[in-house]
Specification:
Elements lengths: L10 E3 L4 E4 L2 E4 L122 H5 L55 E3 L7 H5 L16 E5 L17 H9 L7 H11 L4 E4 L6 H15 L5 E2 L4 E2 L2 E4 L3 H14 L7 E4 L5 H9 L4 E4 L1 H10 L9 E5 L1 H6 L3 H8 L11 E6 L4 H10 L4 E5 L9 E7 L5 H9 L6 E4 L3 H13 L4 E4 L5 H13 L4 E4 L14 E4 L6 H8 L9 E7 L1 H4 L3 H10 L6 H4 L22 E5 L8
Parallel strand pairs: 1-4, 6-13, 6-14, 9-11, 9-12, 10-11, 12-13, 15-20, 16-18, 16-19, 17-18, 19-20
Antiparallel strand pairs: 2-3, 5-14, 5-21, 7-8
Helix pairs in contact: 4-5, 5-6
């Protein structure tokens, strides 16, 4: 759903892109384009965008005009309110749109667009048009064509059934010297502009590229040294309380050597630096190997990925089935669904690591990359498919994937998929015509929290499942030192520089908005802290390059939005800074969980602005108390908030009859 099959755009192979200007290094992306800044006019201000089609310039030459209508026919419409037959929609009354109303750093705001009153003329809005009137808007929008898939067609600029009555409001001036954009379509535009031309601040679509990622490494040393090894505090995991709900639950493991896992898996576990299983691994591995469905909650950084991959690979090897594929479609035997592209890539690499030197084939499917490239790998046959919901849905719709051979279905970070609106996609997958029925496959759900809405979904698609909670789920790891500063929003940059000057350790900085991620990365680079950014608006190539630079230490600071808050295992992240605090306590816990993983120590620093963060103050205080951390006096006075976690942060909705408590030290050799 994320790109077209035959998009006539240059193919870009994954690589590293950066540039220097005035002695500073910048990563490529919105906010710091990979080209030197051009000189402005004599007064030192930015230049205006060029006039493009009377809709506000997008270039760098001169000031753009306010918006006017665009037609889909051969001729421009007349300056009247009338329907103009086969010509395009009318251009409005006398005025085709005001000039930009004010001058900003990135160009003036576009004026209000013109537009015909009533439906524009013309029979159809043909391909590659700029939107506009017509009886039917097929593939309209800015540069849309026949090859657009359903998602692109629904969300095009100017798309929808009709372009409606009057032109919409011009958008905010673009960044980097672009001029303001003119107004869009009129009132009845479906998913188009509507009466006000869409959200202020939207920008024209950027040129897209078909991204072909680098081939996965075949180097054994590189494959097995990328993960995080256990730290000095790993032994404390034995003190974490465990609660298990279900009937006839298999006993937990003592160690990997007596786990029953195949020798090849034990070799790969040792190469990965795993000396002993974590609590979630001790409990989940025997349950999955025993053929049971699982819903498992554990703190972030506690080894959940290995807890489901190891038993799945063991079962696929122990009871091997013929792999079914024909070059056009494939029937994976294990499907792992994750909410973000970065987590999808990480799980894929972990699956390759644990299945190393075996017959198991692993493939991945996620957005932002070439569909054709990914399809080639999937339909060549795979036992394990790791995918994001959108690309999975697209491949199923195209017939490239069938669930007819599914033995395992894993929903990883299930609560995040609920937050991102993927609940219906999960239901569609689990009820698909080709899906193996409940009871004939194993369904495994893993997350750091499990709200009741997710558990009700599980009740429909899991059978006789075991509910496992490790520790106070939803709480912060005690291995992370949490520090808070009361900082006004206008003083945050100054405070950030002060903190970064204290050390050169690898640091992950979280912000709330995509725009601020780019601006802050640029600001830090200008102040000799070489930084990059990752967020949802960067091209997939840029996202992977940024994450790769950060993992390799080429750039020691990564500024990120929530896209990097979940599940990512990045080696040697010593410091997490919440430049902007999130709105929910769960998001806070996930963010600071990028450090202090599997027994390693870490530090999390947060900027608290009482004018914006008061609602979460109460929950922050409770989280600090649970983790045995100092609570600033001013934080207790910062606000209330609502705290809804139980003692385990997640409880089995089936009731106490299923529950049994365990401590890791209760497990003895005589089981």
């Amino acid at each position: 759903m994320d790109d077209e099959w035959d998009d006539p755009v240059p193919v870009t192979q994954g690589g590293t892109t950066s540039f220097s200007d005035g002695g500073q290094s910048f990563s490529r992306g919105r906010g710091f384009s990979a080209q030197p800044r051009e000189s402005g006019p004599a007064n030192g201000n930015d230049t205006w965008g060029e006039d493009k089609g009377r809709s506000g310039g997008f270039g760098r030459e001169r000031r753009g005009r306010g918006g006017g209508g665009f037609s889909s026919g051969n001729n421009k419409g007349d300056n009247s309110w009338e329907n103009n037959g086969n010509s395009g929609g009318g251009w409005g009354e006398e005025n085709n749109g005001d000039d930009g109303s004010r001058r900003g750093r990135g160009g003036g705001r576009g004026g209000r667009g013109g537009g015909g009153r009533g439906r524009g003329g013309g029979n159809r809005n043909n391909d590659d048009s700029w939107g506009g009137g017509g009886n039917q808007n097929n593939d309209g929008g800015w540069g849309a064509g026949n090859d657009d898939d359903s998602e692109s067609r629904e969300n095009n600029w100017g798309g929808g059934d009709n372009n409606g009555n009057r032109g919409g409001r011009g958008g905010r001036g673009g960044r980097g010297g672009r001029g303001g954009r003119g107004g869009g379509g009129g009132d009845s535009g479906g998913k188009s502009w509507g009466s006000e031309g869409g959200e202020e601040g939207d920008e024209p679509p950027k040129n897209r590229e078909i991204y072909v990622p680098p081939e996965p490494t075949m180097d054994e040393n590189e494959l097995f040294t990328s993960g995080i090894t256990s730290g000095l505090n790993f032994a404390k995991y034995d003190d974490i309380p465990v609660q298990v709900s279900g009937e006839n639950v298999p006993k937990p493991l003592i160690d990997f050597e007596r786990s029953g896992l195949r020798g090849l898996l034990l070799d790969n576990v040792a190469k990965s630096g795993y000396s002993k299983p974590t609590p979630i691994q001790k409990n989940a591995i025997p349950i999955i190997m025993g053929g049971r469905d699982v819903m498992a909650c554990a703190q972030t950084g506690s080894g959940k990925t290995a807890a489901f991959l190891l038993p799945i690979i063991h079962c696929l090897l122990e009871d091997s089935k013929e792999l079914i594929y024909d070059g056009e479609s494939c029937q994976p035997q294990a499907i792992v669904v994750s909410p973000t592209r970065e987590l999808c890539i990480q799980i894929f690499e972990e699956a390759r690591k644990f299945s190393f030197n075996s017959v198991i084939k692993v493939a991945k499917a996620y957005g932002g990359t070439s569909v054709g490239y990914q399809k080639k790998h999937v339909v060549s046959g795979c036992h394990i498919l790791v995918a994001t919901p959108g690309r999975m849905h697209d491949f199923v719709k195209r017939g490239s994937i069938s669930f007819a051979s599914a033995r395992f279905v894993v929903l990883d970070e299930a609560d995040r998929m609920l937050d991102m609106g993927f609940l219906s996609s999960m239901e569609d997958m689990l009820t698909h015509d080709t899906m193996v029925p409940t009871g004939e496959r194993q369904t495994l759900m893993f997350s750091a929290t499990f709200p009741e809405e997710i558990q009700h979904l599980a009740a429909k698609f899991l059978t006789d499942y075991v509910f496992v909670t490790i520790g106070i789920v939803g709480s912060a790891c005690s291995d992370v030192e949490q520090i808070f500063y009361q900082v006004d929003k206008f003083k945050k940059r100054e405070k950030l520089l002060e903190i970064l000057k204290e050390g050169s350790e690898r640091t992950l900085v979280f912000v709330e908005t995509k725009r601020n991620a780019d601006f802050l990365a640029t600001f830090l680079s200008e102040n000799n802290f070489i930084s990059t950014s990752i967020h949802g608006d960067r091209l997939q190539r840029e996202r992977e390059e940024a994450l790769g630079d950060f993992k390799r230490g080429t750039k020691n600071i990564l500024v990120a939005t929530a896209v990097a808050a979940r599940g990512l295992d990045i080696k040697n992240v010593k410091h997490v800074i919440n430049y902007d605090l999130p709105k929910s306590i769960d998001e806070y816990v996930h963010r600071i969980g990028r450090t202090g993983r599997v027994g390693n120590r870490g530090k999390a620093t947060s900027f608290f602005d009482s004018s914006q963060d008061g609602a979460i103050a109460g929950e922050l205080s409770r989280t600090l108390k649970q983790a045995g951390q100092n609570i600033p006096d001013w934080l207790n006075q910062g606000g209330g908030g609502t705290y809804t976690s139980s003692s385990f942060g997640g409880h089995d909705i089936r009731g106490d009859d299923f529950a049994q408590s365990r401590n890791v030290e209760d497990v003895t050799d005589d089981w």
